[in-house]
Inverse folding.
């Protein structure tokens, strides 16, 4: 999954039982990741790979559907 935030925000809700791997590039703003730790998941957990880039925006990747997006 490729995410790009420029002067805005993106919120992504993921299932608690997924392994999430995030590669991020922040030029201004932030990328917040609040997902289940890898060592708490089974070896066969589904994997979601995210390439996140922000330029004056914010991205929140969380297991909570109502995550607050930084502005």
């Amino acid at each position: 999954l490729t995410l790009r935030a420029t002067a805005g925000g993106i919120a992504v809700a993921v299932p608690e039982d997924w392994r999430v791997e995030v590669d991020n590039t922040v030029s201004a703003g932030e990328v917040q990741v609040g997902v289940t730790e890898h060592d708490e998941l089974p070896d066969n957990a589904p994997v979601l790979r995210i390439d996140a880039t922000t330029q004056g925006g914010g991205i929140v990747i969380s297991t909570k559907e109502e995550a607050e997006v930084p502005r």
